Known about the structure:
Elements: H1 2-33, H2 37-51, H3 54-72, H4 83-113, H5 123-130, H6 132-164
Amino acid sequence: MFRGVTLVLATLTVGIMAGIFQVYAYSIMPGLGRTDDRTFVGAFQQVDKAILNPLFLLTFMGAFVFTALAMALSFGKDGRSALPWLIVATLLYLLVLIVTFAVNVPMNDALRAAGAPDTISDLAAVRERFDEAKWVRWNLVRAIACTGAFGALIWSLVQHGRSTG
């Protein structure tokens, strides 16, 4: 039963994260991309500040913890049919974490460090150094990898149901 609960929690949290990355890819960044430099810098800084909250962090890190735990609990005889899909899901979400901490977070931090838009003398230069296109490309990698992990987790739930049903 613990394995099943862990698998459901992994699927829920990874699914939520896939949705978050997709919302950035399909609406937030295209919308911000159409704004002037002051609006872009200020809005991005505020969105980045707002997302750093306990619920988001619990979901973001919980997705990896629950997925890895579901994988670890599936090494036994009963979990073997779901195991390959759990390995795939864990590796794909690990890619999400690596991209996030190696690319997107440092870019977010650099934009935050530029200061409030009202104190920046050259907003266009700050926006250019941020490199929206790079941030968007790597976020798309996160969205695709996380959606793949979500799909693998859904299929592992199917396999888990077949092996316990």
